[in-house]
Prior knowledge:
The protein is an alpha/beta fold. Helix content is 47%, strand content 19%. It has a 5-stranded parallel β-sheet.
Amino acid sequence: xxxxxxxxxxxxxxxxxxxxxxxxxxxxxxxxxxxxxxxxxxxxxxxxxxxxxxxxxxxxxxxxxxxxxxxxxxxxxxxxxxxxxxxxxxxxxxxxxxxxxxxxxxxxxxxxxxxxxxxxxxxxxxxxxxxxxxxxxxx
Length: 139
């Protein structure tokens, strides 16, 4: 089973995402602010974090920076209405693995599919391709 942490201050947004993930067999927890999100992240081994940027207390960027210091490999998807290109580029440099707009017209099924794709295990062909791209050790 996969475990997702949803860090989202709007219950009306977080609850349907949690329910949709759980219908597809993905366990999900909700944190209502950045501080609670970091606390849950430190308590449990999550496979993916769905992170809003505008949070009370700690911002999404601050949460992302703290998470990356502790775990550079966990998958983090930013899920927000906020779409300032410079800020998204900055977050990409900090280490997000995706960006999904939750604004008007957002599709819950597309969000769940994107999360499932990120959680899917890597197949053998992709693994071989990654190994071929690694620098070769020279003597």
